[in-house]
């Protein structure tokens, strides 16, 4: 399967390439971006190369999709968004995303997620999309509720990240 390219008013959503390394390192190297992420803050551009390879390997194995969010006006990758933990037999997947802080609070992620959800429901045949967030991540909570995700509860000590157990609030969106 060829990686799907999606387009919005301000963004081209496409497969990541190694040419995106510096754009990803620019923001994955910031503690405020990684605060709620399950990885350590990137120290070298090789860390960015590895995550690009990881996302592309997951696609090649049929386990998910991770789109680069390329800003049309600058041809710059400002974030990524996509599906992981795709369970075809249960018609569900999890969504994940992150964005360069220079572009926070400008509705870029909502703009990107809308066509990604459409792709998930129509092309991947998803019935349900899950999102797990840190309960303290209010910006992510606001984003998900603006997209009609429903909060379904908090799972205590659900993930082990960065040497400690952390809670996860689960949000779900059902294709009706």
Automatic annotation (TrEMBL):
Q: Which residues form the N-acetyltransferase domain?
A: 11-167
* Gene3D superfamilies to which the protein is assigned, alphabetical: 3.40.630.30
This protein's UniProt keywords: Transferase
Specify whether Transferase is a keyword of the entry: yes
Q: Which residues cross the membrane?
A: none
A cellular component annotation (GO) from this entry:
cytoplasm
- Molecular function terms in GO for this entry? protein-N-terminal-alanine acetyltransferase activity
SUPFAM superfamilies registered for this protein in UniProt:
Acyl-CoA N-acyltransferases (Nat)
The record, for PANTHER family, names: GNAT FAMILY, PUTATIVE (AFU_ORTHOLOGUE AFUA_3G00765)-RELATED-RELATED (PTHR43792), RIBOSOMAL-PROTEIN-ALANINE ACETYLTRANSFERASE (PTHR43792:SF9)
Name the UniProt record assigns to this protein = Ribosomal-protein-alanine N-acetyltransferase
Please report the organism this UniProt entry assigns to the protein.
Answer: Chryseobacterium ureilyticum
User: In the record, what lineage is assigned to the organism producing the protein?
Assistant: Bacteria, Pseudomonadati, Bacteroidota, Flavobacteriia, Flavobacteriales
């Amino acid at each position: 399967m060829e990686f799907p390219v999606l387009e919005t008013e301000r963004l081209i959503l496409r497969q990541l390439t190694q040419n995106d390394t510096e754009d990803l390192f620019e923001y994955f190297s910031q503690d405020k971006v990684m605060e709620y992420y399950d990885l350590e803050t990137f120290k070298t551009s090789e860390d960015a190369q590895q995550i690009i390879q990881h996302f592309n390997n997951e696609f090649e194995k049929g386990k998910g999709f991770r789109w680069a969010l390329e800003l049309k006006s600058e041809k710059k990758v400002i974030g990524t968004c996509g599906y992981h933990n795709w369970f075809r037999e249960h018609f569900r997947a999890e969504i994940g995303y992150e964005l360069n802080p220079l572009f926070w609070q400008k509705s870029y992620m909502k703009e990107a997620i809308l066509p990604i959800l459409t792709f998930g429901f129509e092309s991947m045949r998803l019935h349900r999309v899950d999102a797990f967030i840190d309960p303290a991540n209010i910006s992510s909570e606001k984003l998900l509720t603006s997209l009609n995700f429903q909060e379904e509860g908090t799972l205590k000590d659900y993930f082990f990240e960065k040497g400690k157990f952390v809670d996860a609030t689960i949000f779900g969106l059902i294709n009706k």
